[in-house]
Design goal:
The chain is an alpha+beta fold. Helix content is 31%, strand content 17%. The chain has a five-stranded antiparallel beta sheet with strand order 1-2-5-4-14. It has a five-stranded antiparallel beta sheet with strand order 3-15-16-13-12. A five-stranded mixed beta sheet has the order 17-19-20-21-22. α7 packs across α11.
Length: 653
Amino acid sequence: LFYTCFDTTHYNKRQRRDSLITSVNYNKDRTNISCQSIIIMKYSTIAVALACITSIEAFAPIQQTQQSVSALAGSIRSEVALVDERTGKPTGTSFLPDDAIERGSKGNPIEKFKFKKDGTSAWKDVYEYAAKIRAGELNWEDVEKGDMDNRLKFVGLLHRAKRTPGQFMMRLKVPNGIVNSDQMRFYADSVEKYGPDEGVVDITTRQNIQLRGVKLEDAADIIDGLHARNQTTFQSALDSVRNMVGNPLAGIDDNEMVDTREICNALNDLVSLDPVTGTRGNPVWGNLPRKFNIAVSGNRDDYAHTHINDIGLQPCPHAETGEMGFNVVLGGYMSIKRVAESIDSNMWIPADRNSVVTLSEAILRIFRDESERKDRQKARLMWLVEKYGVAEFKNAVMREVESYKRGVTIQNSQPAPTGDYERRDLSGIHKQPDGKYRVGVLVPAGRLHPADCRTIADVAEKYCDGEIRLTVEQNIILPNVDESQLDDLKKEPAFESGSRFKLTPGNIEANLVSCTGAQFCGLALIETKSNAEQLVDALEAKWSVDKPLRIHWTGCPNSCGQVQVADIGIMGAPAKKLDPETGKNKAVPGCNIFVGGRIGEDAHLAMEPDFKNIPLDLDDLLPVVENILVEKFGAVPKKKRKRDVLKKLVGMA
């Protein structure tokens, strides 16, 4: 009954590790009106009503199974749309219990707007707006403000109204951070028309890709191009489950405990692939109370940073059986009001697809239906766990998992691996277990221009079958390079002296991380990327440290640049500086500096800044950071060659 109008083989493809975008695609207007009517009828009668009395996949939240069909026809539910008439898909709201609908309808402005105009069909509006703008029937200024600034985020379109009015950042979903040369070239083609300043591509701290400068009239074609390449932007922003972070060395890691690729793809399908139609966009998770982050670690290095995610899966063998599984940590996040490190949930699950998807689905269901919908600052998972208490939240998750009847058992957390272990660096050239090599490539501040994208695509196609891996440090890894090709790779023009890309970066520059900054983000107090590069260039030229140093930049207290995990974290803040002309202090761009954050097994967040209100000018900032390098990280001046000293003395350098 679910699949009368669909080829069921499309649904079965979800069981493959790399799910395919199906030919049944809601991105185009459907020509078969009778079929669409049947779809609407089936969804409204089955996915909404039947979900309340049966238990299949994600369509069966436990609270709704305890209600009768008649209860769903109450006054509250009758006031919201349960099915979008244009797409035939149920709305995200239709999966919520009455209590959540009641709270949301009285909640914050974004909640009220979501109930008024469901976000799961926003892609339909993107196609309609794009067609009308191209036909001269509409200007972007005519689009409803709620759509421009909020609802289109469900399609991954974030309007940069303050910095670049009428243009968007388009966020993708790249599970486990794996892309290929064809996709990289498409990114370049998509943004190049917007010019060298606005048409750029950013690698993010979630192993993801963001396209910048996108205009609404072009968005539909970009979405089509991404779907043709097995990528999507659907449900990548606002109140959605964000990109799945995994191990960038998955499958090529000599210390691997779990291959995270299949798991990240399965979780991505859970949250953004419709289990009924096989098309992108899953209405089941179309009305979450807030964003939700999941990270899957594959080794003791914890390259995924599980301690700052809502769900963090940390690989750990079972103490008695030796079966590989995950200890589950919960509630890590960063925001303007609160920064929280994840806490031990006292849960362990086997490291198989069924167990991970089932656990994640159970936690998401509880979060979706029970979390705060009034105060957005208290709508993250940590607040709900604290409301329950850790032990009782675990019990709630276990009851939910048991209700799915999938044979998944949750056990108590297992003892984490012990013994000395030093987190490995991802930059540089390293041998893989199979005898081939992985090559880490520095991408300064994660910023790529169209020519950069094509250069990386060409190199990857030549040396590693087109595969490109992204890291949370906003760099790139080229996997599976033959030893016989290493010398040729090193000689590529892309890596010549003076290039932005480096194969053997210094310890200071190698792990530079930066948020978008004031160039595009209206929340940022400072420009980050250019200032970040300028600072590390100055430091790298003068100082040596004996191990990789992590310097993170973020433009505002939302901490998208994750300064609390950095060795040195620089956050935009107000500052004052003496004006020599007036003799008075004047307001200037500034920063607060955090020191001592840690990642890996010994993760720790630096919650408070060590230095406040430092002017951002390099003459003011550089001495402060240099002192930190020397005092906290043992930096020593780089030795200069005699000929360089002589050149400087005679004015030649």
